[in-house]
Design goal:
Helix content: 40-55%
Shape: flat
Radius of gyration: 20 Å
Oligomer: single chain
Strand order of the largest sheet: 4-5-7-6
Largest sheet: 4 strands, mixed
Low-confidence stretches: none
Number of helices: 5
Number of strands: 10
Distance between the termini: 36 Å
Strand content: 15-25%
Number of domains: 2
């Protein structure tokens, strides 16, 4: 199973295998008739180069698209979407996410505009992300009886998640902007702390029983997490 930031696209027009790297995504373009084994061999050969290129591109995007500037991009579930902000008369604030992140704000906010846009996005993300976390928890909790008392979505500056003494799971709202597999890793990580309260070998063994490939998502956070946090620091 490929991570969310890596996709394969069959193309009737393409005459050769090639990789396209763009913000948040590596795309392997495969001629229609080419065998899958040959395509995967090509991908494995060039994947390290593509991953490094993706990090460079994402870093440039983070530098040029910091803040909430209409017409820039914003990561959503690990891929870059256009950010569209418009102002309308009245006091209503609206957020919608489809093929773009759309934020509607009142007019004449002045210097507070970016902060209001961020708060609006946070208010929208909280219930949406809580639903995603609860869905992922339901997938994993029955196996070893790792039932959280409550799921909370928070703005967290130094952690991606935490598990409280009463088994309350706290999740950083910025995980809405990572690939789903990364969100799943953090959710399962915190669920495993219900049984194992430290990072002992028993903890990592329990995590691996849920997510055998967890190191890939852990490395994603280590390599790209800091840039994501900076990007949302207004």
């Amino acid at each position: 199973m490929l991570p969310n930031h890596l996709q394969i696209r069959r193309s009737v027009r393409s005459k050769r295998l090639h990789l396209l790297v763009k913000p948040g995504l590596i795309e392997l373009v495969v001629p229609t008739a080419l065998p899958e084994a040959q395509a995967m061999a090509f991908l494995n050969k060039h994947r390290a180069w593509a991953e490094n290129k993706l990090l460079e591109i994402n870093a440039r995007v983070a530098q040029t698209s910091s803040g909430f500037v209409s017409g820039s991009t914003i990561p959503w579930r690990g891929r870059e979407l256009p950010l569209l902000i418009r102002e309308e008369p009245g006091r209503r604030v609206r957020v919608a996410v489809d093929e773009a992140v759309r934020i509607t704000l009142p007019e004449d906010l002045g210097e507070s505009r970016d902060e209001v846009a961020k708060r609006a996005l946070y208010a929208w993300v909280k219930p949406w992300l809580r639903g995603q976390v609860e869905r992922l928890a339901e997938r994993h909790t029955p196996r070893f009886g790792l039932y959280p008392r409550e799921v909370r979505i928070k703005q967290m500056k130094t952690r991606w998640g935490s598990c409280g003494p009463h088994n309350d799971i706290n999740i950083n709202w910025l995980l809405a902007f990572t690939p789903e597999s990364v969100l799943e890793y953090v959710v399962v990580h915190e669920l495993c702390h219900i049984r194992e309260r430290n990072h002992s070998p028993a903890f990592w063994a329990l995590l691996a029983r849920h997510l055998p490939q967890y190191l890939e998502e852990r490395n994603w956070l280590r390599s790209q997490g800091a840039a994501l946090i900076r990007r949302f620091s207004l």
